[in-house]
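hiii, so i know i said id send this last week but things got crazy w the move. better late than never?? heres the sequnce for the chain we talked about at the cafe, plus the structure i predicted for it. fair warning i was half asleep when i ran it
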Amino acid sequence: MSAWAAVLGDAAAHGGTPAQLANRLRLPTALVQAVLDHAERLGVVTVAGQGRHSCGSACPTGSATPPACAGCPLSAG
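okay and structure toks below
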């Protein structure tokens, strides 16, 4: 499995900070951060507290919920 797939899969399944993902996946935090940054630029993930859908305001719901919101206690999806 690639680092890209591992990071995005873990973020979708468990959420957390880049450091938490790196710890769970046993990857360098800088690599995890780079994957998340690139995925955000591509629109694959939404990082909580940044962008249009800041954490706690206008959280997407239903089928529009991005994988990065999985596990977020604020996400209704």
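btw Residues 29-42 form the longest helix (14 residues). thought thatd interest u
miss u guys!!
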